[in-house]
Design brief:
By secondary structure, this protein is mostly helical.
Amino acid sequence: MEIMTTLTVIVLLLGAAGCTDLDHYPISGQECSADDPVLDLDANDCAPLV
């Protein structure tokens, strides 16, 4: 029974994580706009410098 409870909690948490507001950034809460500088970022911009 403990496995079913754990599985239920995991499914509920994943479902709650899917309910995000696409018009605001998740951490800052600022509103997204078409001229945000982060839209120009690439995965290579996040790579550590070697």
